[in-house]
Write a structure and sequence with these properties.
6-stranded mixed beta sheet, about 55% helix, about 10% strand, single chain, 5-stranded mixed beta sheet, alpha/beta
């Protein structure tokens, strides 16, 4: 396009933006930008299948909370309107006509001029002159998701192919392959010129390339090149096709050189070119992703020959904040590969300290980096924005801690990292043990036999309540081989991986264990503030005494301790009451004893007396150092790289110790266990980790497996 035509196009875009009151994504600030990203999180609820009725209610409640803030910007209004319209369609499919009508009514109030005008508005917001990759995929994705919905109900004057091509371009430029995958087939179906047909082929090749299917990707690239050569300047997609074609030329940039090197198996070249890509990009998720790819090439190519090389790899990952890439690609796979490389080096004679450093860095990715970090202010006035803020915590920069730092900071603890790796039929267990006052870790990598694998499966989640005693002993011996079965007075901090998080840890622990806690990482435990002992602790609680016998047992135990003068106990009945109480007075312990949901389409929720609450709501509370969540699944591990259950939210919000449910525990048994724990901790002065362990061991042997579903998470 010539200079005069570019100026004319720019003038036209400026005029449209002025007429539509358009906010460019790059111009959004503060809460407005957070709103846009939070809307993406709500859209993700609709993307999960099946769509649950509770999930739709959560969307409407979150949007309603947005209305409490006066006059959202035009872009936010349009996005909310599109979100509500789609939510209403799902309500209609579920037969909830009243809720569907309400959603459509509010959507019309927000965007009364219909989908065609909304499409123009959204297209202008992501105008191609912006460097979208600098904004992050979550920010752009809200607009793309809305465009995909609006194009399906647009009028005859709207050129669907043009809109879908714009969505594909924006998704590709922000490395949002999930959204690109959503847009490609509709683009192919709507293509009304050879140029748009060629673009569909081009973006299919990008998806194949991202999935590592290099030969198929190159075949489609050649097909695109042949088709693109026949696209004339009168084709409406000509300029986009020319730009895509230019990106495929041999000198098309570091990205293409990196992909080509990876295709050839040239790991040295791929690492160098991906590293150059990272250097050319501003700080953010896209740069972090390129750095991740560069280091993955080094791992795959065996280019890390020593512990020093592995540490340099970690340094490069930290410098570009690899965790920011969690919204774009699979960070955990690379870090797991890096851990296995460190173990290989150790088995070849290198020192074991690098193994502990990488193992803990992997734990930081799983949520540890969210713990003990200072929170910002102003992003917590709705659950949707607080949930987005939790994602930000999960993506915060961090640095590895050394074994010596862990020994110094946790001097009385055995720290045990547990990792299961491999594929079906070929699994390995890696256990790293750091003993008190000894900065040299012990590393064991064990091939899991069929019997080992069966025992491990029997000791996972709720199935562990029926695990044979032999299976429990077998797994205990594998996990704690370097502690010993009778180490009296031992305090253990376990850093499990995702596969082993929900296990009956108080049953697996060696007999002489005085206290056991689990943590996302040792670094997270070091950052947590130690729980202080109060002369007369202040305890606040919220309970479901109507449906849960265990809740009644727990509340009665606290009432007795209050009557005896051991504590000062306050009872509240809603999230609002709890928030007000925590704002007006300091407390030492918060206990929440209600039902918890395993999954209703979006994330874990606690069913408080005044209604369901997401874990994100806990981020907006001034939490005490100790939180007890007598709720099923409240301490379960994350199911996705950017979501979490309640325990991690409490730790991210400032708590240092959280007692929570790893699975669906029997509420009466949980109430009995917690009542005894409170008596030991609050009346007799036993520290909480030891009190929970003692209360567990005091139960009849047949009840202990079920009670092991309650665990202490955080600083033990």
């Amino acid at each position: 396009m010539g200079t005069w035509r570019r100026r004319l196009a720019s003038m036209a875009v400026t005029a449209v933006r002025r007429h539509l009151e358009v906010d460019l994504l790059a111009d959004l600030q503060g809460l407005d930008a957070t709103d846009v990203r939070a809307i993406t999180r709500l859209y993700q609820v609709l993307d999960r299948r099946p769509v649950y009725s509770d999930a739709l209610d959560h969307i409407v409640q979150s949007v309603d909370q947005h209305y409490s803030r006066a006059a959202p910007k035009p872009l936010v209004r349009r996005l909310l309107a599109s979100l509500l319209d789609e939510t209403g369609a799902h309500f209609q499919e579920l037969g909830r006509a009243q809720e569907a009508a309400q959603c459509h009514r509010i959507a019309t109030e927000l965007a009364p001029d219909g989908p065609d005008r909304t499409i123009l508005h959204l297209l202008s917001a992501i105008h191609s002159e912006q460097q979208l990759h600098t904004l992050g995929s979550h920010t752009v994705d809200a607009v793309l998701r809305a465009l995909l919905h609006e194009v399906g109900r647009s009028g005859r004057k709207i050129r669907r192919a043009r809109i879908l091509a714009a969505v594909a371009y924006a998704a590709h430029s922000t490395a949002n392959f999930e959204r690109l995958r959503t847009a490609v087939e509709p683009l192919a179906a709507a293509a009304d010129t050879p140029g748009y047909q060629a673009l569909a082929t081009f973006y299919r090749s990008r998806l194949l390339l991202a999935g590592g299917r290099l030969a198929e990707a190159r075949a489609l690239e050649r097909e695109f090149s042949r088709t693109a050569a026949r696209v004339g300047p009168k084709d409406r997609a000509h300029e986009m096709v020319a730009s895509a074609l230019e990106s495929l030329t041999p000198d098309g940039g570091a990205m293409d050189q990196a992909a080509e090197a990876a295709r050839r198996g040239d790991h040295v070249g791929a690492a160098g070119w991906y590293g150059q890509c990272a250097e050319e990009l501003p700080a953010g998720p896209f740069r972090a992703t390129m750095r991740l790819f560069a280091e993955a090439a080094r791992v795959q190519g065996g280019l890390l020959p020593s512990p020093a090389a592995v540490r340099q790899c970690l340094s490069r990952l930290c410098a570009d904040n690899v965790f920011a890439a969690r919204t774009i690609t699979d960070v955990e796979s690379l870090l797991t590969g890096l851990l296995m490389r460190a173990v290989d080096l150790h088995q070849a004679g290198a020192d074991a300290q690098i193994v502990a450093e990488v193992a803990d860095f992997l734990g930081e990715f799983r949520g540890g980096t969210a713990v003990g970090r200072p929170q910002g202010s102003g992003a917590y006035d709705t659950d949707a924005r607080a949930d987005m803020t939790l994602v930000d915590f999960l993506a915060q920069a961090t640095t590895p801690v050394t074994a010596a730092e862990i020994v110094t900071g946790l001097p009385a603890h055995h720290v045990v990292w547990v990792h299961v790796t491999g594929q079906t039929g070929e699994h390995h267990l890696t256990v790293v043990t750091l003993r008190p006052s000894d900065p040299v870790p012990l590393v064991r990598r064990t091939h899991l036999s069929t019997a080992d694998g069966k025992a491990l499966a029997q000791c996972l989640d709720e199935d562990s309540e029926d695990a044979p005693a032999e299976a429990v002993r077998r797994i205990s011996d594998l996990f704690f081989a370097d502690i010993g079965p009778d180490a009296l007075g031992t305090r253990i901090l376990v850093v499990p991986d995702s596969a082993t998080w929900a296990m009956p840890w108080n049953e697996l622990a060696p007999r002489g264990t005085a206290a056991l806690a689990i943590s996302m990482s040792a670094a997270a435990a070091l950052r947590s503030r130690p729980a202080r002992a109060a002369v007369v602790p202040r305890v606040i609680g919220i309970f479901d005494e109507v449906e849960l016998e265990g809740s009644r047992l727990e509340a009665r135990a606290l009432d007795r301790l209050d009557a005896q003068g051991h504590i000062r106990f306050t009872r509240v009945h809603s999230l609002a009451e709890l928030r007000d109480a925590l704002e007006t007075a300091p407390y030492d312990i918060l206990t929440i004893s209600v039902h918890g949901t395993e999954s209703d389409g979006f994330e874990y929720r606690m069913l408080l007396p005044d209604g369901p609450s997401s874990p994100a709501a806990l981020l907006r509370l001034g939490l005490p150092e100790v939180v007890v969540l007598g709720c099923c699944w409240s301490a379960k591990s994350t199911e996705r790289a950017d979501t979490t259950a309640a325990a991690l939210s409490c730790l991210a919000a400032g708590a240092s110790q959280v007692v929570g449910g790893l699975w669906a525990i029997d509420d009466e048994l949980a109430g009995r266990l917690l009542a005894d724990t409170y008596d030991r901790h609050l009346r007799r002065g036993v520290p909480l980790p030891q009190a929970l362990r003692q209360a567990h061991l005091a139960l009849p042997p047949d009840l202990r497996p079920g009670a092991a579903g309650l665990a202490l998470i955080g600083r033990g």
